[in-house]
Every structure is written in C-alpha cells, then in structure tokens.
Write a structure and sequence with these properties.
The protein is of the alpha+beta class and 165 residues long. The protein contains four helices and seven strands, in the order ααβββαββαββ.
Length: 165
Amino acid sequence: MTGWPHEDIASLNAFYGDPRGGESADRMWEIPNVVYWTPPYPMFYSDGKETPLPRIRVHKKTVQTFTDAFTDVLQTMGHDKIKELHLDVTGGAFCYRLQRNGSSLSVHSWACAIDMDPGHNQFPSHWKPGMIDQTFVEIMKKHGFTWRGEPGDNDPMHFQLARRK
C-alpha cells in the first residue's frame, strides 16, 4: 500500500480509525483493526527472553507492508546477518500510550509502527555508526516506512507507516 497518512492525529484517525478510549485503546476500534502479523523470520522482544515471538500485533492495513518489508530484509540480508545486527530484536509494535516526554498519543497507538533493536538504538539519540544498519533502513524506506533516525531526528529504533513531512 502507498499513500500512508501524515502522523498528525486527524490524519491517523482518518486513515487508521480512532483508537482513543481513555486509559487504553477503544475495544470497539481495537478488535476489528489490530491483528496478528507473523514475521517471516524469528523475532524476539528486547526483554532478553530467548523465546521467539510467534506474532506481533499491527493494524490490519499494514500487514502486507510489514510482510513485504521484512521478507525483503530476510532475502537481502539472510538469517546470520539479521542475527548479527540485532534485526531480530524488537521493542514491539502496537502499544496504546503517550509519546515519550509528550502529551499526545504515540504513533504506536495506531498499530502502524515498530521499534527495532532498542537496546542499541535508544531514544532519544541521533543515529551514528554501530546503531541500526543502513541497509535495513533503506529496505524499510523502500517499502514505505518512515525512519525516525534521519538526520535531525532522535529515534533511530522507530519505523512507522505514517509520514512526517
């Protein structure tokens, strides 16, 4: 899919629906919109547990793009390189919460973002060599993801299916 919305609340709500429900996501929005995505290679939460995630919760409109992007990562980089570069470690996708140090909802609240290798790409920080691999970044961008580690930004772990500009 192309034509991802801008990351402002009105655009996100118009495209993905309105998740706002108070302390947690509105169940009447969450149930029909947030689905389980099965990654094409084993992925692990950043909590250090050795059990791979069988699936990750994302918005139903993003499933094919997640599948296409991560399949491209697997085909381009291979299992060994993915593991070496920690591209099998995620901080998660759907999480109904406020932005860190902010008062508005995080893009994760619409289930259209994923954090990769947060242990080596902490927020807030500017990307530098040794952080998230640039081949991975280019693959994700090719598939429509916006990367929050671009020069001048401060969240190199974060990839979202919502535009910033």
